[in-house]
Structures are given as C-alpha cells and as structure tokens.
Design brief:
Length: 857
Amino acid sequence: MASLYLIDGHNVLYRTFFGVPRLTAPDGTPTNVVLGVARILLKILREERPDAVVAVFDSREPTPRHEIYPEYKANRLKTPEDLSAQIPVVDEMIDALGVRRLSVAGAEADDIIGTLSRLAEERGMDVVIVSSDKDMYQLVSKRVKVRDGLKEHTVGEAQVEEVFGVPPGKVADLLALAGDPSDNVPGIPGIGEKTASELIREFGSLDAVLAHPERLKGARREKIEKGADAARLAFRLVTIDRDIPIREDWSGFTPRGIDASRVAPLFRRLGFRKLLEELDLGKETQPGGKGDAPMGVAWKREGTVKELLHSLGPGDIVSAGLAYDGDRETVAGIAVEGKGVHLLPADATARAARALSARGATIYLHEGKALYRRDAGDRTGEDPRLFDTQVAGYLLEPEEGTPSFAKLRARFLPGSLAAPEGESPEGRAAERASATLALGKALEERLAEAALLDVFRGLDMPLLPVLHRIEAKGIRIDPGIFAELSEGLARDISAIERKVAAAAGTGFNINSPKQLAFLLFEKLGLPPARKTKTGYSTDVDVLERLKDLHEIPSLVLEYRTVAKIRSTYVDVLPGRIDPRDGRIHTTLSQTQAATGRLSSSDPNLQNIPIRTELGRRIRAGFIAERGNLFVGADYSQVELRLLAHLSGDAELIRRFRQGDDIHTATAAAVFGVAPSGVTPELRRRAKVINFGILYGMSPFGLSRELGIGGKEAKTYIDHYFGRYPGVKIYIEGLKASARKDGYVVTLMGRRRFLKDIDSRNKVLREAAERMAINTPIQGSAADLIKRAMIRVDREFRETGMEARLILQVHDELIVEAPEREAAGSERILKEAMEGVAKLSVPLTVSVSRGKNWGEIH
C-alpha cells in the first residue's frame, strides 16, 4: 500500500527543541533541533520507506482565522533564540535529505496537512501525520494515523476515543465547547474537555448541544446558553480546512534521496559524527562500531579469558562491549572493537573486564554493578575501566529516571533490532554485546556533545564500585530490638484508636478515607479543603490544616505515622536479613533522582525519620558487629553553604566564615530583633525561610508552611532578600539562564534539563523555576558527598584498613570499623568530606561514633 508521511513542521520544531537535550556544534551553534528533526526524518526514510514525504510549515501571512478572530494565537510566546537560530539550518538539512518543504500563502500547516491527507486517502494511500498536536486527531481515520515523532506513539481511531471520549469526527465539536488554550481559542467558559466529551456523547454534535440547552439543568444550561456564540466561533477556528488550493505536482513529494554532497559537510560542521557513520558518510568504522547492531552477529567461542587475550594482538584494543542478561544466562558476549564477538562463561565476565582494562580497553556495558556482583569477594587492585550505558543514558536525560537497555537502544540506535527470545543464549549474548559496544559509542559521543563526560568519568563511574561494596557489605540489625519495638508500637496504635473513637463518640475504620471524611466534614462540620473523584480529601495537607480545629485530625496524623513506620520498617526489616551473613543489604542507585542524589531501595534506609524519638529507636536497632563501632560524619548545613558560595552573597559568606548560626542571623534580620533576642520559635521560623528560599518557595508556600498570611510571608521574603541581596540576584540569574539554555548545571557539571521552563502553563512553568533554583544546590551537595565517598573508600583500601563505608543517607556517611580504627576513620571521613571542594565558605563536618546507628546522631 502506498504511503504518505506529513511532518507538522512547527510542532516538530518545538517538540524537539524542548524534548531533545540542548546540544551545540563545535562553533557554539545550538543543534538539538537540527539533530532531533534529522533523526526523525532519517528513521522515516530508512525504516518506513514511504512513497511520499512532505514537511509542512505555516505561512508567514495572516490566515482567515486571524480575520475571524484577531486574538487567534495571540498568547504565543516569542520563538526562543536558540530555536530561531536553528530554523534555517533545519531547512537546509531537510532539503539535503531529499524531503519536500511546503507552505501555502495564507494557510496554516494544519489545513495543508488536512488537505493533503484527504487527497492521499482519495488516492488509496495510507497517511501518517507526524505531530504531537491533538488538533490533528480530527483527521484520524482508517487510513490516517497521527504519530508523535519523539515518543513514536501512534494514534488511531481507538486511541482518539480513549483520549477524548469521542470519535475523530467529533473532536472539533469537543474543542469548540472546551476551547483550545494553546491557540487562544476561548470556547465556553467553565466547560472543560471532560464536560464537553459528556455533552457530545449525549447530544451527538455541537449543533445539537447548542440547539437544545433546555435539556440541561442548572449551571451547565446557563453556560451553554451564554457561550453559544463563542462555541460557534471556536468551531470555525478549531476545524481543520481540508480544501486548501494546493497546486503542487504530487510527484514532487516523492523522496529525492539523500544528497551526500550536501549532507556530509553540513553534518561535519554541526559535529554529527554518529549520524555520518550511520549514513556511511564518515570515516571507516570497525566492526561493532556502527549505529545499527544487526541480529545474528557472528561470534567466536572462547572458553577462557586467557584464550580471549591470546587471540588479541598487543596494543590493538580500543574498547569492548560486554553483555549478559543478568543472572539468567550462563554465557556472556564480549564485542572487541575490530576483533568481532567472543563468548565466555558468564561467571568469567568480571575477570575478562579486568584483564581487558589492564590492556587499556574501555568496557562498555549496561548496569555496571551487575558485573561486580559476578566478582566473588572484595577484590583488591584496580577496578575495570567501565562505561555504564545505564548511567550515561540517565546523565543525558535525568528526568526519565533509570533507563532500560531496550529504551536506550530505541532512543540512540534507531533501526537496530534485538535478538528474538527464541534465539540461542549464544546468539542473544553475541547480539547484545555488539549492540552494547555500538550503544556505548553513541552515548559517549552524546555525553561529549552535552559537556557531561567529565562528571561521568570523574564522578559517576568511579562511584560505581564504591556503591557495590556498600551494598555487598550490608548492615546488621538486632531482631530482638525490632520485635520489642513492634509490640510497643502495636500498643501505641491501639491506644490512639481508642482516643479517636472516644473523641468521635463512635467507632469507625480509621483507615477508611470515606468514613473519616464523613466524620470530619459531615458529622463534625469541619471545613473540607479539597474534593477528589471519590469524595473529600483526607490527606496529610488537609489534616494539618484541620488539626487546630479538633483533636481527631492530630490523632489520625499520629496514627498514620506510627502505623506506617511499623509496617514499613519495624515489621519488615527483620525479614530482610540475609541468612548468609546476618546483615541487611540495601540497593543504592545513582540513576533515580533527577538532581543526582543517591536513592536507597529494597529496603529504603534513607527515609527513617531522623529527628523524632521513634526514628531514633529504630536506628538503635542497627548495630555494629562485636568489636566494631559505627562512625558517622554529617555535613553541617551543606546546602546553605553552597548557596553562599554559588550566589557570592557577601553577608551570607561573612556569616559562615565567622561561624555564626545562620538561622539565628536570618531570624534577627527577618524579624527585626537582636541575635540575643531570637527565641527557639523565631529560629525555627527562620530555618523554614532559609530552606524555603533554597527550594524556590513562594510567599503562598511559606504562608502555608508557617501558618501565616500571604502578605506577612511576602514581607519575610522581602526582608530576607534585603539582608542577602546576592541570593536574589543569583536566583533571578538562574531562572534566566535556564530559559536561555534549557538546563541548569551543578558545581561539578551535572545538568538537569527543564522542558517546562517556558511553558504557557503557569503551574508547570513555576515548578520548573523551582527546579532551576534547587537543582544546582541539591545536585552540588549530592556531587560533593559522592566525591567524598570515592575518597574515603580509596583511603580505607589503600591503607589496608578494615573500616568500610556501609551507608550514605543524604548528607551523612556511616562507616563500620574495628574499635582500634575508630579514630583513624573519623579523621579520614572528616578530611575527605571537608576537603572535597574549595568553596568561598568552609565545609564543616561533625563526626561521632557509637555501638549503634542511634548513638551517632
């Protein structure tokens, strides 16, 4: 069946601008849009091989819609400079790839696409519209689909109904009622998509809804009657015109083929080396180095590591792709650049990696800690030179979390196919090894383009074996302490339940949100704060607001806290003891949090409350082995110190250099009292303000946190910036640079991309601004403690000490050491953590020791 691909130019440009990490050419020209559009087009041309392709763009002239409604699209923001700079290059690239660009005077791209899709259907062609704009859903039919170019999510008739609740032919009716904020089309005030969908399903069409408002009741009828004219106008604006006069010869839409004489110099100028290799336009590549890793890769069976090394010449190893499917397979593949794929027993992979690294090879693999888990014991000597594709993919797109191999492969090796499940273990191992090498090369190039290689090689890769050693070492708990604690908490829970029943005057299920809502808002008459689909909310925020009005909300909050700690930690942790060593082993991930912080899971040991008595009782159950001690080291106010350094605020720097209590100093400035007059409550409030500023808290957020009025909260923030003006300048500068670059950077070069920083949606935009303020601080703090972990681990191992890191929790490192090494461990921890970076203010660390975790707080 003949096929036509229609590229929604404006949509794809913006989609790639905000969806592809910011990149620059060697000369500094931004290139993320050019690269994104190139990959979309090449994927279509090489994989789909369509009979016709057209990249459609809006006309520069006003359209009939502007004559009908002058405010049409009036809310569109100015095109970002980095995008404007790339549009001419995109045009040049599209032409060089042999794709027709099309615009029609006085017509929008939507109408051109609508007309071409109709003409194609009449010719019996299948049509794919490449766009993420839901307006296009009205064009969907049995032959017409809509596909998001980045996510490659295809929408057909069934998917349109899933999204809107109406068939494609009624999408314009729905949008006319609900409006289209992205194009400044108003619709009927108070009618959203959900209500519009219900009305169209009930009446059958927009005309029927507007003709029979008497069939509706109350406010809904009034809205329809008042907004009928607006809906009719909106319908004219949102309906795609499928009869635009197009005089183009259809044969001009046939792909002309890639013009190598134009593409090669363009891609070289832009620094697209990987694309040049994929198109066979770059330098010759060795086997295994191309972007497309084929199925059925040939392999050579090598029984031992020694035989593998013997097959290689001296000095000719550049890199190797190592792959095995976790613990499922018994065989591993190693793709050596220029030497093909070799197979080894899976339990020999760690030895092979070390041996190849000793010969100068970089070992590309996915989920590097799996390699260490194959390595029995705490091995001494150099760790292998690893390139973990999982960590690399996370660094490039931290908002996406931990990436799977399959996801990275689809994202960075378009067109490659994995070996099918039915293939032999040898075939799967060989194919994945080859793909791993190709993926590693592609990611390495992307890291270089994004200026992330330094943080990857200098921090995240050296941390990998440290995390493995912490996980393997584990931590001991005392089951007896936890059993006693569980019994005590069970009594506490029962006592709280009795108090709640007495206060309510009746028994009810405290775990039932519905019963609790009935008690609070109907029986007791407390003011409800928020309604959900299932009734009034009784979440933590709501109960916090109500706790001063009645005793029951406070009791429920206490009940939930105690019950959660009992069910999450006290009753669970004893069951997680490994019978082989009597210890608990958490998993530490560096690819979960977008800020770069480490996360603990399975079990999570980072969320045990720190400052509550209950939290201390739980920590007391974590015990050192006989003859050992726990040694803890904790940064003092590291994030506020980083704020002082990064902002350069003279007053903040002076306070830290003098060793002043920063919360007391802030309280004195904000509340207008002498430092000696700062009460504990004022200091607490100042602490909330200090950290609220750090996390981009608005006056509204601060007012909720402190239980004060919005005006008063704004006054406190103004006083804060009056005392620390450099912080205000720094924050505004962060937001401005985030809008310009699309990302923010930590002290050590880690990036966080902020796709919503220019969003027209105020909620999304303000959330991105808070991330822009917080990430350089929180991410830098995470990087500091990671670097300290690497130094501490290395010092212990190089000096032959038995002390070992066993846990990292936020700004704290915990070591288990023989009693004779406690003093030396304290020294190493303090020196490593305080000397990890030279800031304009001192990094200070408090150290302590004890027989259990509770004693070192």
